[in-house]
Amino acid sequence: MNLSSLVVPLLLALVAAYGLGRRVDVYAALTRGAADGLSVLLRVVPALVGLLTAVSMFRASGAMEWLSALCAPVLDLLGIPPETAPLMLVRPVSGSGALAVGSELMAAYGPDSYTGRVAAVMLGSTETTFYTIAVYFGAAGIHKTRHTIPAALTADLAGFIASALAVRLFLGT
Fold first, then answer.
1. C-alpha–C-alpha distance, residues 116 and 91, integer Å
2. What is the DSSP code string of the chain?
3. Cα separation of the two ends of the chain
C-alpha cells in the first residue's frame, strides 16, 4: 500500500478528529451538508439536462459541421487548424462532448500531428464555460449572468488562439 491511497482516509480522519476536538457534532454536520448538496443538485440538474440536450441536438442536426465550415477561413487566418472548429464550438458547452471531439480529431489526424497537439492543448487550457456557469451560478442562486458569459467566452477564444500559438512556438508545426 502506498501513501497516495491513504490520503483521503487520513484527511477524513483528521477532519473528524478536529471537529470532535472542537466539540462539533460531526455526524449532524455531515448530514446537514449532504442535505444542502441535494438541494443544490435539484437546482442545478434542470440546467445541465437542458445544456446536454442542446449539445446533442446541435451535433445531430449537422449545424456544427455547417458552422465549422463557416468559421474555417477565419481560423486559418488566426493560425488555428480549421479541423479544430468543432472542438472550439463544443468546448464551452460540454466537457465530455469536447473530449469526444478531441478524441475524434486525434484518431483522424494523430496525437502527434499539429491538429492533434492543438486539440490537446485546447482541451487543457479552456473551460466548459456554460457548464461552469450553470453549476456555480445555479448553486449560488444567481440568475443574471451580466458580463460573465461574454468575458468567459472571450477568455476561451484567447485560450484557443494561445493554444495554437503555443504549439507552433514550442512544438513546431
1. 15
2. --GGGGHHHHHHHHHHHHHHHTT--HHHHHHHHHHHHHHHHHHHHHHHHHHHHHHHHHHHHTHHHHHHHHHHHHHHHHT--GGGHHHHHHTTT-HHHHHHHHHHHHHHH-TTSHHHHHHHHHHHH---HHHHHHHHHHHHT----TTHHHHHHHHHHHHHHHHHHHHHHHH--
3. 44
Q: How far apart are CA 15 and CA 33, in angstroms?
A: 14
What is the maximum alpha-carbon separation in the chain? 65
CA nearest to 71, candidates 54, 83, 57, 60: 83
pLDDT tens digit at each of 173 positions of the chain? 677 888 888 988 998 899 889 988 888 888 998 888 888 788 777 877 777 787 778 778 988 788 888 888 999 888 899 999 989 988 998 887 888 889 889 999 999 999 999 999 999 999 888 888 888 887 888 888 889 889 999 999 999 999 999 999 998 76
